Amino acid sequence: MSDAPRLLESTRRALDHRLARAQAEGRAPSLAAGLVRDGSLVWTGAAGSVDGAPPTPDTQYRIGSITKTFVAVLVLRLRDEGLLDLDDALETHLPGTTVGDRTVLQLLSHTAGIASETPTPWWERTDGALRPQVADVLGPEPRILRRGRHFHYSNPGFALLGALVARRRGRSFGEVLAAEVLEPLGLRRTTLMPAAPHAQGFAVHPWADLLLPEPAHDSGWMAPAGQLWSTVEDLSRFASFLLDGDDRVLPLDSLREMREPVAGTEAESGGYGLGMQASGGPHPLVGHGGSMPGFLAGLDLAVDDGLAFVAFANVTAGPDLGGLIEDLAEVVRTAEPRFPQAWKPLPEADPELLALTGPWYWGATPYAVKLQADRHLELVTLAARGRESRFGPEGEGTWTGLDGYYRGETLTVVRDAAGAVTHLDLGSFVLTRAPYAPTGVVPGGVDPAGWTGDPEGTPDPPAER
Question: What CATH number has the domain spanning 9-335?
Answer without folding.
Answer: 3.40.710.10
